[in-house]
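Notes, Module 5: Reading structure tokens.

Key idea: the token line is not a picture. It is a compressed description, and you learn to read it the same way you learned to read a sequence, by spotting repeated patterns. We will look at two proteins. The first is printed below with its tokens.
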Amino acid sequence: MSTPTLLAAIWFWLLGFILLIYVTLDGFDLGAGIIFLGTTDAPRRALIRGGLGYTWHANQTWLVVAGGLLFGAFPLVYGVVLSALYLPIGLMLLGLILRSVSFEFQAEATHQAFWNLAFGGRSLMAALAQGFVLGGVRGGLSVSGDTFAGGVWSWATPFTLLVSVGLVCGYMLLGAAYLVAKTEGDMQQHCRDLASMAAFLAFILALGAIIWSWYLYPPLLQKRRSWPSLWITTFPALLAVLTLLWLLNTLRTGKIETAPYILAVLFFACALVSLAGSLYPLILPPTVTIEAAASAPVVLEIMLLVMIPLLPVMLIYNAYQYRVFRGKAGEAGYGEEYMEKRL
């Protein structure tokens, strides 16, 4: 493997790793917000807000990092994706901004009903928009040279709608599994039931999207059968199914409170590895490869030298944050007494 090809491959999988971190962290925020939208009981809503407090701010950082690294490592992809999917990307950013505003304003507002609806509704909007972006890329973008050759609404297809709804269910699974570890009693059991339902729906919709993608791009089916590609396509997919069954059993028995979220993260990790493996070495199906879309080798080398020390710092910061805010949150969040004990 030549140096340019190796560098492009490293950055392909590194970006995938960073996106996985974003999906599993901000994913439970968005999922909890969607659950919040469907919750009418005020104490339960307070428990959801309490479980998200003090941690959700840093989760969106990974999306900013992923966007910046994509621009530096694969500028062709950055330009094409923004041109092709600027409507869902714009809705996603708007949803994330308004969700943050509503989360802060709701606690102090006189008319809380409006801000409750804004928080939950914007979480749903951001999740649906991310699903349309994923579905648009996965379904294939029309590229001519270095530019997008499709139309404004090329991303709006039944396939992208299926992927979008599936991602919403996946985020609900992450959110409910996270709340299982943050709540107790009736609320915890309610979250277990929601997680089980969301896991089943996410699996069915993901399976439907996979079968549909074989129809859209038949070589993907052959790739999942061939050696050695099946190690990064079929094998992770089988692990995802086994993890999902383990997750459903854990939700049923209810022995370990943190296990559902850990297993939900593993399910997402296996599914995303299988997705990335089915694309590799393409980065924009059906024609653009990672090597063709990558920046000059010297740019990739400099970026890699920066990320080698920076990435562990970011991971350690996030880990410390969740260590401090571990345990049950309660309706009022963690409170001053809790923080004094933790710090």
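Here is the second protein, with the sequence above and the tokens below, as before.
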Amino acid sequence: MRAIILLGGQGTRLRPVTCNTPKPMLPILNRPALTYQLELLRKHRIKQVVFCLNYLHRNFRDYFSKRRNFGLKIDYVKEKFPLGTGGALKNAERFFTGTTIIFNGDILTDIDLQKVIKFHKTKKAVLTIVLTRVKDPTIYGLVETDNSGRILKFLEKPSWDEVTCNTINAGIYVFEPELLKYIPAGVNYSVERGLFPVLLEKKKPVYGFVSRCYWLDIGTVEKYLQAHFDILNGELKVSIQGRKIKKTVWAEKNVKLGKHTTFDGKIVIGQNSKLEEYVQVTGTVSIGRNCYVKKGAIISNSVILDNTVIGEGARIEGSLIGKNCFIEPHAVLNNGSAVGDGSRITRFSKF
């Protein structure tokens, strides 16, 4: 069986850090988010993968051409212009040789794909949409099913008076090739707004598989930070790179720590990074590769990407700092701050 991963989005909700890096290639604990999906596919014996690409497409090729592909055969399909979820699938039509798994590229999950595939085949479905439950249904498009799992209707961002369920589209599908005949070629087309309602109108066997596994859409700064925190807190069980230098502190190769550096939390430090004397790292923190944290800096519940310098006495709390940044001495970044790649925050600034 083959999987197709939709990777063409521009990651607008995650700006500024997606201005230079496509969202699926943003690191989570110092490796691209997409690699977690590839590991999941390999775990479930799916060995062929197609990347549907548009925005910053070379980032994907550059990374995967230089590294092992997790034991997978990876093909690339590039769009000449953004085609949307449906248009991207139509553009990759030649790869639909049988039942196919479709993934949105910004999903972090540990779903049991074999269970989903078995459900799909048992129901003789043409399309199975993985569903997940949410606490606030009014901020999502809902998917209502009957007792057998057959999808009855889609409801886009309902008011509380309209809410009939709390299951939403999780961005994972089992897809039969015959569905491609309903998708127009060469135009921007959405499966969510176009294809799926058409299939219900035609009374095709479309089912929803309700998953109780871990699931997160990393599409906002807040959710991207949460992905790091969830892994470090054990909510999603995946391997963490580096060796444990303390019970809950992982460090990759060539990390240098000052004698009086202190840790209180769950922390990952990337290769070749240096933390000077009296640096304090607390909460859940990911520090990228080739970073330099100078004397007396404080980092709490934050993510620092590669090649960034944190100046002496700076304080970073609940923030996302992009690559190649320079946070000058005694600058303060408080909860919710997001700093784009290559930024310089001048000394004593407060955000």
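Summary for the second protein:
- The mean pLDDT is 93.
- The chain has two domains: 2-231, 240-345.
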